[in-house]
Amino acid sequence: MKPYVFIDRPIPAEAEAYIAEHCAYSIWDRKDPIPPDVLQEELSQANGLLTSGRKIDSSFLEAAPRLRAVSTISVGYNHFDITAMKARGVIGTNTPDVLNETVADLVFALILSSARRTPELDRYVKDGLWKPGDNENLFGIDVHHSSLGIIGMGRIGEAIARRAKFGFSMEVSYCNRSRREHAEQQYGAVYMTLEELLRTSDFVLLMTPLTPETARLIGRDQFRMMKKTAIFINASRGQTVDETALIEALQEGTIRAAGLDVFDREPIDPDSPLLRMPNVVTLPHIGSATARTRYEMAMLAARNLVLAVTGQTPPNVVAELS
Ligand code: DGY
After folding, report:
1. Which residue of 103, 211, 318 sits with most ligand 1 atoms within 8 Å of its CB, as the best mutation to test the pocket?
2. How far is ligand 1, taken at its centre, from the CA of residue 126, in Å?
3. Residue 136's pLDDT is what?
């Protein structure tokens, strides 16, 4: 008998067709949330789940007694409760690599737009505020030949370092749990302590996965270590930062600006002060959001799932569960 899988969101037709070749399945292919009774019914039968960002914890697993594998269409898997999944022997897979270059592009969009104030000045022109004699009030800061400190030098970090070094002649530094010789040799990335990186970087970029060790890694003390002219970029997860401390640092001029793709709560609270600050660029968590990359991610997640539920070893089992 074919394994039964549940797909909890719309996915590209090719990814669905691939799953259909190998599994019995059902799909929630609507944008509105799944009603709890439908989810409950699906989970009671499913051997596999294709998802993105759904919390997989012990209460979820209790409702899914036959579940053998969860495949997430994301590189981040902080929504996997590793202890609970280990205890139940449920495999978890993610989608690394296929999104590296796309996320790196988006990080540069945040760096450039926060340094040169492009969203703010776009609004300025469209609101009819552009006048002859405008000069210093339109100034930004240079990205080229500045310094970029990358916190979390994984594969996406390396794609960013490559752009920084060869595209913008930036000095790259990084901190990471382990040294990345490739980044050091190819992009001249200098390994530093977090404190040293914070004190010396023009752009401080947070790229680390969210783990118990990195939760709220950047807070009031860390913002105070940064240059007053520093621009803080976050493309990791909102919970790696103390958002209240970030708001305070921006309001008090402890740092110059921020470019944010991720937030503590997503979608962000419409009353957040971050939405009213001209020196903050805000994006709706779109690091990997291009049609081609999301397609590649969905195909990879579908392959991971099929391999896992048919008793084979998928290439992208997350490290803690492999
Ligand atoms: C991921 O895949 O985890 C990223 O957050 C996508 O933007």
Report:
1. 103
2. 32
3. 95
Identify the band that residue 223 occupies on the pLDDT scale cut at 50, 70 and 90.
very high
d(CA 257, CA 233) in angstroms, rounded, equals 9
Domain that residue 256 falls in: 100-282
Distance from residue 73's CA to the centre of ligand 1 (Å):
8
Tell me: do 114 and 191 sit in the same domain: yes
Per-residue pLDDT, averaged over 168-191, amounts to: 98
Q: How far is the CA of 160 from the centre of ligand 1 (A)?
A: 15
Question: Cα 34 to the chain's mean position, in Å?
Answer: 24
How large a percentage of the chain has pLDDT more than 70? Answer: 100
CATH of the domain at 22: 3.40.50.720
Positions marked catalytic: 237, 266, 285
> Do residues 274 and 136 share a domain?
yes
Q: Structurally, how many domains does the chain consist of?
A: 2
Q: Please give the structure tokens belonging to residue 216.
A: 């709220």
Q: Do 226 and 118 lie in a common domain?
A: yes
Closest by CA position to 298, among listed 67, 98, 101, 70: 98
Same domain (yes/no): 181, 196 = yes
Q: Which pLDDT belongs to residue 107? A: 99
pLDDT value for 153: 98
| SS3 of residue 307 by DSSP | helix
Q: Which amino acid is at 138?
A: L
Rounded CA separation 132/247 (Å)? 34
Q: What is the pLDDT of residues 109-141, one digit of tens each?
A: 999 999 999 999 999 999 999 999 999 999 999
> What tokens appear for 175 in the block?
């901190």
